[in-house]
Amino acid sequence: MEQSTHQPKPAVTTEGIILKVENILSRLNPATVFQKEQPIEVELGSGDGSFIAAYARAHPESNFFAVERLLGRLRKIEKKSKRFGLSNICGLRIEAGYFLDFLLPHPSAQAIHVYFPDPWPKRKHRPNRLINEEFTLRCTRVLRPGGVVYLRTDDLDYFQQMKRVFDANKNFQEVPTPESISSFITDFERNFHTQGVPTLAAAYRLVAASI
Question: Looking at 118, 154, 155, 157, which residue is catalytic?
Fold first, then answer.
């Protein structure tokens, strides 16, 4: 019998730093995505890359996934990465929840950064918020033991929700956000500060893995 020559599609192809997911049913293999095998950190909703590009530049010993829905923003991250000569950032244009559930290996991340996600301020729209009870469960699956979720927002109601759902998940313990992270600010944060709007920040360490 003649052997089939059909080959499965690779999980991703690369266009610059931007990964194009070809097989949405296969988890990413970081060893084939990054040039070096290093600890992994993730930023969900990277905006124009103000945080992740500067932070990745300061931490060449780690690899970073920048997750964004808008291609234009990923292009800005790509430009910053080229300007800084970075080889430790890969961008994906995909929904944050899908990335955590189906593409990021479980467990693999040392840190998850979520800065100024859409607050969906109207009460009827609040179910659309990224940070909820289900998000805390997703984080227990993708974080390595001792991994940390770093959160920032300008919206008090959303901040209270963030703290409420993580405080309720006994797999997490609240920890201080180190100045070595908080000193790197996002584009949204910079704009808020010029308007006198303070940053609300919290961080939670995974102390027990999800079963």
Answer: 118
Least confident of 8-17, 47-56, 182-191, 202-211: 8-17
Q: Is 118 a catalytic residue?
A: yes
Which among 157, 155, 146, 156 has a CA at the least distance from the CA of 203?
A: 146
Quickly list H helices, the chain.
30-33, 50-58, 71-84, 96-98, 133-142, 156-168, 179-182, 187-194
* This prediction's pTM: 0.90
pLDDT at 46 over 50: yes
Set out the domains of the chain in order of their start, with CATH numbers.
12-206 (3.40.50.150)
Q: How far is CA 49 from CA 15, 55, 87, in A?
A: 17, 10, 15
What pLDDT was estimated at residue 168?
98
Label residue 208 by pLDDT band (50, 70, 90): confident
